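Example record for the data management plan.
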Amino acid sequence: MRFGKIDFDYAADLAGRDPAADGPIYMVNFMKYKKVAEYRDGGGEAISGIEADDKYAPVDVLRKIGAHVAFHGRVVAQGCVEEWDRMGIVRYATRRSFIEMQDRPDFKEKRVHKDAGMDYTVIVGALPSGGSGGRGRYATFDLRAGRAEPSDSNASFSIEGTIIHDDRRWGSLTVSWSDGIPKVPALARGGDRMVVVAQGEIDRWRELLTSP
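Corresponding structural encoding:
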């Protein structure tokens, strides 16, 4: 993996989960892009990492497997300056479908653009633990190694596992919404908490959190 480390134990759990114990999972993506995309064959026009990721966008593949983009947006504030560029969250109908998607030919065709454009990423598997989401132009993601206190005004999640990691492991995520960009606490890079504010281009959290 060029842009992160795979947790193979969690991957095996996702792939081998008993169907009776399987169900929806939210894969939360923290993404940082290369300034210039690097394709393995060295060919093609010179484009930015973000432009390469725009070519990736596997929305049609997700639709085929019953997955939905819950959130996608550009980072506008964060606790550690320039750590992340975008946030993306996908709700998969089952854990197994997330793993099986990786081997689909139509997904692999698009994956080359992600491989070229992504510098590094963290992807956590999150399960709703309270709240139903809110509304606002900006979404604040607060990811912690420990537990966070649920709130009626936030959507709260427990972290089941970190499928792509940077040696950190996470325990909880809260998401809150606002019409203005909130003040974000300064945080050390590589610490046990990340706070990221993103401007939503796609925001279907509330709809998906309240659906079966």
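Summary line stored alongside the record: The mean pLDDT is 91.
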